[in-house]
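--- STAGE predict ---
source: upstream dedup step, 1 unique chain passed
mode: sequence only
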Amino acid sequence: MLWLLACHEVPTALLICHNSNCVEPVDTDRDDTVEALEQSLALTRYGRPVIDGVEIDLFWRRQGAECLFAHDLDDLDVTSPASVPASIIADHLRAPGDISWSGQRFTVFVELKPAVDRSGAQRHSAPERVSHAECALDAFDQIAAGAGDGARQVEVIFTSFEPRLLAALYQHPRWPRTGETVARLGLVRGIPRPLDNQTPSLADLTLDLPVTMVETHPDWTRDAEYDAFESAGWEVGMWMFTATAEILDSIERHEPDYVVTGEARLLRGWLAR
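--- STAGE serialize ---
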């Protein structure tokens, strides 16, 4: 049924691999793991890369004061230092051949997670926000080096549910204001308040930050909010757990700039039909 929804021109959204894990069938236990990232970057369709970019999640863990590539802090055995995914992506950019379905730029979403403990209840102190930002900027430097070596067009969009983490990034002296690899800021929105208090309100979106993209879940986003995003001049990324008929309809109606999914082959086939 999902394949029969086309009634007009299909959006030309860039396809981003959600949580570095878009090998189907999706096993969420592999989210933000080295093995899933490597396999996702290797996906092809008709000899072309399936995806146009990838998302990596970075945590600052208070206990141990370490920056980790992880989807949560429940099982530290499957986490890696943040430098590991950045190195894998950099090597991917150095390799010959196409690196994206579009044949143009490669996009990396770097999501800074707002929790610093396993329970998810504790949030960053001001110094921890700076440390987390520095870790993310280290990852950017690695990715930018790979892009330079491979002569690739790359953009890195730093995203978070927590606007103060984005502020720590942008206000840091190392924030990349020049260079071939573009750095931008984006806010992530999920289940609306009061059901999930980590989701930024629309008021948060007016912070004095150069936010250029909002990543939102179509099931929880009203038409009026899309109008607000458009009025602000922001790009839109739609993220999802699974591609339902309703979500595909939202993609067709709102034509996002990015589709963030773990079902890369399914969505690529749908977008390319």
